[in-house]
Amino acid sequence: MADTTDLYFDLALALRLAEHANAAPQHAPSFSEHQEGTTCPGGLVWVSDQGTYLMSTGQPKIPGDDGTPNLIAYAHGWEPDDEHPSAADTHIGGDDFAEHLHLHEPLGPRSASLLDLLRRGATQGFRHLVLKVTETTVAVTVSRTRPDDA
Predict the structure, then answer these.
(1) What value does the CA radius of gyration of the chain take, rounded to a whole number of Å?
(2) Per the domain annotation, does 61 fall within a domain?
(3) 17 occurs within a structural domain
(4) In total, how many domains does the chain have?
(5) Cβ atoms < 10 Å from Cβ of 111
(6) Which is an annotated Pfam family here (predicted)?
(7) Better-predicted residue by pLDDT, 5 or 60
(8) Is residue 148 situated within a structural domain?
């Protein structure tokens, strides 16, 4: 297994989802937020089930451009019909989970929030939101290219 599993998402689409969550009047809470009775402050949900993708926590949901009831951003190479490793065989871990990435929490000490990173990345010509997943961490960055870009 590699030291990291890097997931590349279309930055423009991830920003569209984040802006939806930021503007939404209500949010779908994570499992722990629901159990604790706390509200979701708005974010992206990183999901692994039939593929690996991001979606907005915002309610009402944002419809997909293809007529689906919920717009999602698949990780490059991780759509349901793509030939990718089983998520359980990577640092992603299990094949079925949802992890909330809150928009306004700093991404690290003295770091910008996820929403700020997405907005700044879009204005500076970055094309991808990258989740760098290790056994114990998920680092969030932006990138101009993917390793397999021509």
Answers:
(1) 15
(2) yes
(3) yes
(4) 1
(5) 12
(6) DUF3085
(7) 60
(8) no
Structure tokens given for 90: 């990577």
Distance of CA 137 to the CA centre of its chain: 14
Residue 150 falls inside a structural domain = no
The DSSP annotation for the chain comes to --S-EEEEEEHHHHHHHHHHHHH-SEEPPPHHHHHHTPPP--EEEEEEESEEEEEE-EESPPPPTTS-SS--EEPTT-STTS----GGGSTT--SSEEEEEESSSBSSTT--BHHHHHHHHHHTT--EEEEEE-SS-EEEEEES--TT--
Contact 43, 6 (CB under 8 A): no
Task: List, for residues 22-59, the tens digit of each pLDDT value.
Answer: 999 999 888 888 888 888 889 999 988 888 999 999 99
Residues 6+ apart with CB under 8 A from 43: 18, 21, 27, 57, 100, 101, 102, 103, 114
CB 128 within 8 A of CB 68: no
Q: What pLDDT sits at residue 87? A: 60
CA quadruple 49, 130, 18, 32: dihedral, nearest 10: 50
Which amino acid, 24? A
- Range of the structural domain that residue 35 is part of: 5-143
